[in-house]
Write a structure and sequence with these properties.
The complex is a heterodimer.
Chain A lengths: L1 H9 L15 E2 L4 H6 L4 E2 L2 E6 L11 H5 L4 E5 L4 E2 L1 H7 L6 E4 L4 H14 L2 E7 L5 H14 L2 E6 L12 E8 L2 E9 L5 E7 L16 E2 L3 H6 L1
Parallel strand pairs in A: 3-8, 3-9, 4-6, 4-7, 7-8
Antiparallel strand pairs in A: 1-2, 9-10, 10-11
Chain B lengths: L3 E5 L3 H4 L9 E5 L4 E5 L1 H5 L8 H7 L4 E4 L2 H15 L6 E4 L3 E5 L4 H4 L2 H13 L6 E5 L2 H9 L9 H9 L10 H9 L5 H6 L2 H7 L2 H11 L16 E10 L6 H18 L1 E12 L4 E12 L2 H12 L8 E13 L17 H12 L4 E6 L5 H4 E4 L29 E8 L4 E12 L7 E10 L4 E6 L5 E7 L1
Parallel strand pairs in B: 2-4
Antiparallel strand pairs in B: 1-6, 1-7, 2-3, 5-6, 8-11, 9-10, 9-11, 12-13, 14-18, 15-16, 16-17, 17-18
Helix pairs in contact in B: 13-14, 14-15
The chains are: A alpha/beta, B alpha+beta.
Amino acid sequence: MSDLIDLLERKRLIWQGRYSQPAPEVVSSGYPLLDEKLAGGLPKTGVVSIQSSIGIGELRILMNILLSKSRLVVFINPPGFLCAEFLYHQGIDLNNVLVIYPRRKNEALWAAEQCLKSGACSAVLLWQHAFEIHQVKRLKIACDEGDCLQFLMRGCARTEASLPVSLSMHLAPHSQGLDVSITKRKGGWPIPAFTLDVSTYWPVFCYAKASNVIPFPTAHHQKIV
Amino acid sequence: MSLWIYLHFPALQLNSLHYDQSHGLVIVDGRRNEIVQLNQIAQENGIKQGLGLASAASLCSDLQVLQYDPSCEAAKLKEIAHWLYVITSDISLFEPNGLLLRASNMLTLYDGLSNYWESLAAQLNALPFDYSFASGYSPFAARVLARKCFNRIVDSKEALLSELKRCALSETELTPKQVAKLTRVGVNTVGDLLSIPMADVAKRFDVDLVNYVGRLTGKFHHAVEFYHPPEKFNRYLDLFFEVENLSLLEKPLLKLLSQLQAFLRIRDQYAHELSLLLTLRNNQSCQISVTSSAGEYRQEAWLTLFQLKFESIKLSAPVMRITLSTERVAARQGEMADIFEGKQGKLSSLELLSLLQAKLGESAVKGLCVTEDPRPHLSSQFCQPFSGTSPLATSISRNSSIPRNKSRLRPSILLPSPKLLRERISIAQGPERVSTGWWDGQVMIRDYFIARAENGSWLWVFRTPEQQWFLHGVFS
């Protein structure tokens, strides 16, 4: 009898309640708190949506992940000139960086898909506000094909329907770094907002100690100067 | 005496057309008003070579007519010579429609005439051209026999000579005037002519005839110029229909690309850039160039790149001819893949780059590099992807030569040009004075600050000596 159960189990014809799916492969974000909340880190492949306004540190929290990659990192449609000096001093090999400025939105999606499925890239960052469900699905399939990680850098609008992404994060500025809320996570529950302290990595971008901050010079100050 | 093989292509222009085979088609020599080449359907309708255009048109109602173009045939002939060059070395062009090959030198390599001819014929049969052939112990003898459709390759001197003797004088290279002169004294065939001793021929006829007879029999030296293959691939194809839709160009283009593939493969080369010239009806032309950074020779890969390129091209008039040429080729490098990493995807990074550039345009895909220039807008620059060097020759430096400094804070995103600061900020770090650029006239004096805007974003702002504040970047 037990032989038969073994056989059926091996053929995956029996489903047992204690059986659980293997956890998806993850890659550490470099921030212990974030890793802990995400049960190990960000997914190794798949689509990650990041909702934030520009300039609050949304790229900085990805730096450790980008640094751990050996293949190409592609930036599609960044909102300005991507600064080579920044990436260089952070330790990224600039020969592994491609920047693409497509003329149209469809071309941006096309470029992202090609990069993802080529297998030559390890991460693709695409700045675009709105996505449709089928577009994200295609990107996801391309990610699996090329073993690549796709970041969707979206604006802070929170109105859209849920997209089929592996992980969706919402970032907001905070005095110690960032307020992170996980709005969607594959194989886990959403996590309400928590504060990610980045002061050990980026002390400049924290302003808890008010003595550090010099007020913006007003017209009155300028006269004195 | 060396053995020669002559190949005669009676319908070179007709065979090279890319056309629909359901109509009768004739090629007419306009100057003589006679049909020189015709297809199978025209033959079935009773049209023969040498017929006038009017008689031909009356025999076949939906006849299509093309003008005879010797230059087109000469170009095709070169292509054939090129194609045969892999098999045999000494090829001479007899324009407009003949090729002469020197067989003697190749016999040791191929171990006999029949083996040699077998591989030659296999190579020839891959082409769409009809041909007739013959061997001979002089270029002219082989030529006369080939044009007579002897269609045998033998090395027996007696057999060749007796066949040659049976040829009528009108089938030789002699001018009609010379033929008429000879006929008047009863010399009708080559045999008759050869039976007259040389000295008598010299006495009674002009020196040209003596030269000809000497060359025909192989007694006189016949200088021929041998063909050297070109370094560059450059071929064209005339389209029989005017093509307005670029997607219809794929089939004829594939034909040229397959020739390119063969061209590159026998040289063990990769093409890095191809250019396709579309000749339009309004006498204009449209040049399309496609690059492959990794280098490529396979036709399918090039076709994909061309298809992507076609999407962004608009034609002003229908296409009549396409010309494909190579712009840059390089010897093939060994491809090395990491055996432990495993090849993850289908494409290498250079192949991906070519794909992106073909669709988006070369200017849309960029790489990054840093220079030693302290001015922020010059220290980070776009460059050719994967080049690792700056485009500026003056401040050229390898990316790796600049020390990395993690504490050097630079914004991740720079504005294309600094903008007047219009919001309230609080300064977090600074100033960092940049006062430089005296050497090239672009003097810059700025105090840079890292500041925080009220909405929480981190900005890179600077103050000029005139106390004006500008926004230059964002720390995202």
